[in-house]
Amino acid sequence: xxxxxxxxxxxxxxxxxxxxxxxxxxxxxxxxxxxxxxxxxxxxxxxxxxxxxxxxxxxxxxxxxxxxxxxxxxxxxxxxxxxxxxxxxxxxxxxxxxxxxxxxxxxxxxxxxxxxxxxxxxxxxxxxxxxxxxxxxxxxxxxxxxxxxxxxxxxxxxxxxxxxxxxxxxxxxxxxxxxxxxxxxxxxxxxxxx
Length: 194
Hints:
Blueprint: H1 2-8, E1 17-24, E2 39-46, H2 49-57, E3 64-68, E4 75-78, E5 86-90, E6 97-100, E7 107-111, E8 117-119, E9 128-132, H3 136-142, H4 144-147, E10 153-158, E11 177-182
Domain At1g61320/AtMIF1 LRR: 6-193
Organism: Oryza glaberrima (African rice)
Protein name: At1g61320/AtMIF1 LRR domain-containing protein
C-alpha cells in the first residue's frame, strides 16, 4: 500500500484525510504522529486490530472515524482522542467489541449485530445515534434512555422485532428527532417517543 510509504517517509504530517478501499493495510513501520489527520475512512479494508490501533494512537487530531465492511476487525478499541466526535461502524461482520475512550464523541452510527458489545465511555456527550440491526427498537427503548440521557436524534432501522417492548419509566427528555424504519410485524412505535 502506497500509504505506508508516505507515512514512514515523514510525509504523513500534512495528511488530513485517509480513504482506503478494497485493500490490505498492515502498517509494519514506525509512523510519526499524524497531527493534521482529521478523518479516516476505511471501506472493505483488510486490517488487524493492532494495525488500526497503531493508526488511531498516532492520529491525535482525529474528528471522524468511518469503518465499512472491514470484516477482519474483531475488536475496535479507540484511545482517548479528544477531538473525535463522529464514529461510524457499518457492517463489519467479524466485530464483537467496540470500546471508545473518546470523551467528546457526539454521533455514533452502527449497523451490525445487536450482540456486539458497545462501550462508548462517557455517553453524556452523545447527541445522535443511528442503529441498524434486528431488534433495534427494543434496544432503543430499553438501553438508550438511561445510558444516553442527552440524546437529541435517534434513527433506528430494524427488519425484525421479536419482542414487544415493555413500557419503562425512563424517557428521552431531550429527543428532538426520531426516525424509525421497521420491516414486518406490529409494534407500538409511539412508545419510543413517550
